[in-house]
Specification:
This protein has 244 residues and is α/β, with parallel strands linked by helices. The chain has 8 helices and 6 strands, in the order E-H-H-E-H-E-H-E-H-H-H-E-E-H. The chain has one domain: 3-Layer(aba) Sandwich (Undecaprenyl pyrophosphate synthetase), CATH 3.40.1180.10. Helix 1 packs across helix 2, helix 2 runs parallel beside helix 3 and helix 3 packs parallel to helix 4. It is globular and about 60 Å long. It binds 3-methylbut-3-enyl trihydrogen diphosphate (2 copies) and magnesium ion (MG).
Length: 244
């Protein structure tokens, strides 16, 4: 199956927020919200593929989420392992490639192993890219990029004057990924919570009020249609209106 050729965002990122509130709204424990949220990923990824999206980047665990109660963090780790165990084969059948952003070293070894195994299985696939942001924080990413660049400069000081924005991109964890076109956040919060700060420069922002477990392919379709209506001027004038 080859991807559809509709015009629209190629790289979409989602802040999957509202699992806890979804659960509480029905008198359930927060973890059940995470469980339901995990189930959504597969359907949304399939819908993304059919909408012509080439990369779906999902914020699954932030550098700040370690502040949550230990049992909730442990549940999220287990959920990730269970997700990878049950979904890697179906993802492989769908030709999905799997990437991550974030510092995986802080995760328990068995979680790291499971991530590495899934990446290996899905490594040669050429279809949609599923990128999970795990222990990801944009400020950390930028600081780490600055550190890597500085280390290179210690060997070759002339690099300092040659550095430009494109060059700096290469030091970020997103090096080699397509430019971010759109950020969606669910659950009615209007903030980016330390996600992809550099990459968001000219991304289109889209806020959806439903909680992540209630976010359906239909909501994604509405977001993509909304994107197609927008004029991306990049600071210039006389935009050429895009056709859907
Ligand atoms: C998002 O849902 C999932 C993670 C951050 C891991 P939340 O757990 O933040 O849900 P709310 O925002 O408390 O409702
Ligand atoms: C952002 O949601 C992180 C993820 C969805 C993984 P949070 O719920 O952690 O963000 P805040 O606390 O509302 O800013
Ligand atoms: Mg939240």
């Amino acid at each position: 199956m080859s991807p559809p050729t509709l015009s629209g965002p190629k790289h979409v990122a989602i802040i999957m927020d509202g699992n806890g509130r979804w659960a509480r709204a029905q008198g359930l424990r927060r973890n059940l919200g995470h469980e339901r949220g995990g189930h959504q990923v597969r359907d949304i990824l399939r819908a993304a593929f059919h909408l012509g999206i080439r990369q779906l980047t999902l914020y699954a665990f932030s550098t700040e989420n370690w502040k949550r109660p230990k049992p909730e963090v442990a549940f999220l780790m287990n959920l990730l392992v269970r997700f990878l165990r049950s979904e890697t084969e179906p993802l492989n059948k769908d030709n999905v490639r799997f990437l991550t952003l974030g510092d995986l070293a802080r995760f328990p070894q068995r979680v790291q192993d499971e991530i590495a195994r899934s990446k290996e299985v899905l490594r040669h696939n050429t279809g949609i890219v599923l990128c999970l942001a795990l222990n990801y924080g944009a400020r950390r990413e930028i600081v780490e990029a600055a550190k890597s660049f500085t280390r290179r400069c210690l060997q070759d000081p002339e690099r300092v004057d040659r550095l430009d924005e494109e060059g700096f991109n290469e030091y970020l964890e997103t090096a080699g990924m397509p430019e971010l076109d759109m950020l969606i956040r669910t659950a009615g919060e209007y903030r980016v919570s330390n996600f992809l700060l550099w990459q968001l420069s000219y991304a289109e922002l889209y806020f959806e009020s439903v909680f992540w477990p209630d976010f359906t392919p239909e909501h994604l379709r509405a977001a993509v249609e909304n994107f197609r209506e927008r004029d991306r001027r990049y600071g210039g004038l006389n935009p050429i209106r895009k056709k859907a």
